[in-house]
Amino acid sequence: MRMSEILIKNANVCDPAQGINCETMDLCIRDGKIVESVSESAEVIDAAGRLTMAGGFDGHTHSAGKINVGRFMNPNDARRTLVPGLSGPEARTEKTRAQVGYNTPNTYAIGYRYAKLGYTTICEAAIPMLAARHTHEEFKEIPILDKMGLSLFGSNWQVMEYVRDKEPEKLAAYVAWGLKASRGYGVKIVNAGGGEAWGWGKNVSGLYDPVPNFDVTPAEILMGLAEANEKLQLPHSVHVHCNNLGKPGNYETTIETMKMFEKVKPTVDRQALHVTHVQFNAYAGTSWRDFETGAPMVADYLNGANHLTFDLGQVIFGPAVTMTADGPVEYANSRMLHEKWSNQDIELEDASGVVPLSYSPKSFINAVQWAIGIELALLVEDPWKIMFTTDSPNGGSFVNYPEAFTYLMSAKKREQVISGFGKMALDRMVLPGLDRELSFYELAIMTRSMQSKMYSRPEKGNLKVGSDADVAIYDIITSDIDPSVEHEKVKQAFSGAAYTLKDGNIVVKDGKIEATPMGRTYWVNAKVPADIDSAMNKDTDIKFKKYYTVSKSNYMVEDSYLPNPVEIRTEGAF
Amino acid sequence: MQVVKLSLNKANKIPIEADTVTPDNFAGKTKEEIEAILVWYGNGQCPLGDFFTVEVEGSDSAENTKIVFEGNVSRVKRIGQGMSAGEIEINGNVDMHCGFAMKGGKIVINGDADSWLGCEMKDGEIILNGNASYYVGSGYRGESCGMRGGKITINGNARDYLGEHMCGGEILVTGNVGLLPAISNNGGTIVIEGNATMPASEMKNGTVIIKGEISDMLPSYKEDGTEEVEGVTYRKFVGDVNAGGKGMLLIK
Q: What is the pTM of this model?
């Protein structure tokens, strides 16, 4: 199936990694990579001056693992058809399997629909290590896309003990072992310590509130894991879901967390910290009554800081499904909203919860949440710090990305939505005063280019010679369109790529799936000195003997779970 | 007036999904056209004429169209799904999802109905002269609103979860019902002339009247005086307190 050579003619290339801002040129592809030139016999795709970017990279999405709990809690989601062509039931075709769903689509639909949006790589945001097998089983059934996942370490007994006992080398060894055991790509920390506290029906109230029975604080866990992350020279920084998520007034904790990382020295050329779905962590006020946006304060700090990246967690009005390892937050959600609630205990590792909900523009809280995501994107000056996400499906399904892009690119579109808000909502946000409109170049940074550096994947998110030939061509002539006015056209073009190429294969043409090759799974194998590794293993042996419900040998994800693995080796600086 | 008679040629084991069998879809069509209407059978679609002998008298609009099933269609599902007008008469037993999401018109069943009768019904009327199975007038799995309007009359018994997640409309059962009728309902009226077990749990709103005996009355209801309905005085309970509900449960 693989075409050995392709020439994309007249591509209006927008590739921020090379500083190319909508310049018309030809792109050459050989054996799945971008090359300087191709022979006369190359297959020709005429881009006809249309907008061409590298394949999109969603660096924070819940698409494998916990999403399955969302599926069985929301069988009704299967029949939702809110976004035409990208949701609801679709019968199988010769090329595609049957599809269902909106927030929690089946695995095949996830692959097809991301590809239709021009996305070619996703990062699952939370792998509970004990359940990693399940994540990889779902990865196996998500076609087209390249995948990676972040393993959860933030409420792990072994982690907290090593932090408490000041054993940074063993902690690093444990992280390396955990990544190998779960075939994960990086370190995810969700409400540090809160998952363990939730085991006792409690939560941690901030960075310095000790975790019950472990005598460590969330701040110590964060710093300990950051140190381990850098010791192992992992390709991604720690990926942090801050404490106090979803609570009015939490912007202070968020800024405090960001500040704490100023002293972390990255050992790889990337950020020292990624703070995720900041929308949920940029709330001011003291209760839901006086709740208001905290985005200006957070953005103000971000504008002066250069050690971190963040993603939006933009809210989309309509039904969503929240799913997080932040167990106590989900309990609070379900009580407040009288919604269905699922709760899981991941033994020694973390908690987890799933709650479906619906964001309504009539609710002033939801309206302000919606505004905060956009405010962050517009108030933070440097798009290289910002990754576009909806924390799919927490803020809303990824199939709404094209709609959300228009919020960022068109003040008119925003006005349209804002006109439906009540006065109370308008008083609590700053969005109506913002007239910044993002360009295609800035959008490309947030949706593919910055991810390349953020995840140290130089072959992704750009169209440099030698990079993966993941290309998206959208039906937009940038010189003829004013996205500020013609936002509907922009939305339509991003909803079904004219072409999506994955490793040089045409996977989408005119918004329809053409081919469904198997993507890769990236995982990190970090080297640890043998003596430290064996000392750490003695400790974990005890954990497995005394507490786990599975044996250590059955815990490890075997090679057979990764049909197309890419092992990223790191040397470590011990 | 248009009358379409359908007689099943041979009892089928694999269910037929007859969501295309509605007065809306049959109105003004000839025998040949109706025979050519596709229904799902297993994993493929077949013309209706493969299974049924079709007789057509007259030609008229949907509201003046009557479909009559002669004999049991106990493996034919989704008859009258989404219909908005006209009438369907079934002289025998019928399979699941009969009258699913119907918006108007009338279905009369002279036999028993399998589960999900009239689920997510919006308007219209269903009269069942026989027994019903589970989930009469309820919601699709996972949905928070079931039946929203219209009326279902069951001249017989019904099994468990009658009116689950009901938001409006009316259900009348002249016989007994099984477990948990009116579970999680949020509106509408359910009248049960016979007996019921654990009625109205997690009810948020609506009215439930039970004229017969109740087994396992749930403790999460507040007694609040009496209420007279059509000359009969009932003990009035309000709840379900567990769900912060304001529903009214009237019992003898």
A: 0.95
